[in-house]
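Structure first, sequence second, as always.
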């Protein structure tokens, strides 16, 4: 127990040092400030919202202007989704501009990234302590996924390229990266990857086939209208909605595929005499239980973000028929149903694929591995 405590402390300390460097990378353009004085004399409270402005006295804590004091007005529009209401000693994110030798500042938001980093450090520490090598590989795949999505997928969508095709290719590459980093180039890895691809194919096909039937325009997505106007009407927001459906379902599909692949591997390890039919039968028994809870997980994941909307429906005494026919609700139902169908397909397909792969003799598996070019490519990139 003492040894585990020391390991946790060392890992957390190392991550803390890394987080300081990460913080320096994040704050390239912005500055951190501390609110010294707040004057709310021009603030009008209307129910739970506030309008008017706050007069803030802010001390700059970072950058070349560190230690200087600025007077800044914080405008309040009465929109609780976007307004920030500050108190004395709050740490804030701010821009500092210099014009004709005079400093001007603008407060952007309350500083929350330090809390996010702290919570992230706790997650990473627990992941590494429990999962060890696999946890480290999972962390690499997580970081790699974030980088690929932010540096490749989002810019490609922003540029209006072939949105759906780019999304599918990105998810194929991400699936390969995540699965082979975690499971390695093993039978389990190949089984999970091919099972995920089956779910991805089904989800993408259903999205194309049934997407237009519901006459959904994709504008129910958060900030969709702002994105359309900022791109001068150039982006196809419906294709982005289709991409969101496939992306949302891909993670759960990957999870199911890895569960089923690990199940087949354990069955074969503890009883090497099992043949393909017996592996399929046992895999189906496990798959039914996994699917039974995973489809509900999708429902909870999507509906959890709309609790306030559901409360509003109740307040307005709307009927179920009215709710189900709303564009926003229909969009979420499409995501849930298509995603769930993809999951239902992934479990049996992964079981069939796993039964075939684990029925191959070792010589055939070695031959497949030697001919698999992606392994060589990834090794070259890592070197």
């Amino acid at each position: 127990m003492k040894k585990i405590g020391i390991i946790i402390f060392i890992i957390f300390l190392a991550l803390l040092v890394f987080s300081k460097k990460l913080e320096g990378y994040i704050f390239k353009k912005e500055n951190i400030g501390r609110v010294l004085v707040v004057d709310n004399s021009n603030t009008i409270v209307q129910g739970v919202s506030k309008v008017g402005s706050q007069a803030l006295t802010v001390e700059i804590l970072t950058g070349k202007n560190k230690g200087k004091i600025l007077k800044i007005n914080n405008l309040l529009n009465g929109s609780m989704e976007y307004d920030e209401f500050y108190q004395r000693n709050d740490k804030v994110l701010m821009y500092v501009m210099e014009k004709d030798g005079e400093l001007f500042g603008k407060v952007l938001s309350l500083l929350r990234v330090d809390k996010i980093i702290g919570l992230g450090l706790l997650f990473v520490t627990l992941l590494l302590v429990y999962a060890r090598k696999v946890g480290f590989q999972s962390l690499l795949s997580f970081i790699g996924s974030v980088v690929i999505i932010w540096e490749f997928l989002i810019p490609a969508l922003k540029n209006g390229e072939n949105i759906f095709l780019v999304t599918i290719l990105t998810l194929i590459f991400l699936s390969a990266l995540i699965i082979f980093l975690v499971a390695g180039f093993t039978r389990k890895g190949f089984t999970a990857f091919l099972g995920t691809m089956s779910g991805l194919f089904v989800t993408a096909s259903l999205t194309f086939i049934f997407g237009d039937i519901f006459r959904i325009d994709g504008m129910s997505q958060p900030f969709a209208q702002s994105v359309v106007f900022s791109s001068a009407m150039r982006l196809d927001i419906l294709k982005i909605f289709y991409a969101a459906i496939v992306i949302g379902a891909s993670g759960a599909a990957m999870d199911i595929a890895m569960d089923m692949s690990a199940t087949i591997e354990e069955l074969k390890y503890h009883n090497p005499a099992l043949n393909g039919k017996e592996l399929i039968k046992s895999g189906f028994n496990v798959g039914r239980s996994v699917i039974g809870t995973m489809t509900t997980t999708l429902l909870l994941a999507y509906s959890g973000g709309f609790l306030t909307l559901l409360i509003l429906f109740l307040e307005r005494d709307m009927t179920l028929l009215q709710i189900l026919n709303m564009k926003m609700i229909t969009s979420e139902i499409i995501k849930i149903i298509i995603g769930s169908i993809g999951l239902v397909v992934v479990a049996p397909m992964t079981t069939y694929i796993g039964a075939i792969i684990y029925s191959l003799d070792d010589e055939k598996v070695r031959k497949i591995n030697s001919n698999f070019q992606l392994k060589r490519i990834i090794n070259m990139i890592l070197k």
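Margin note: The chain has a mean pLDDT of 79.
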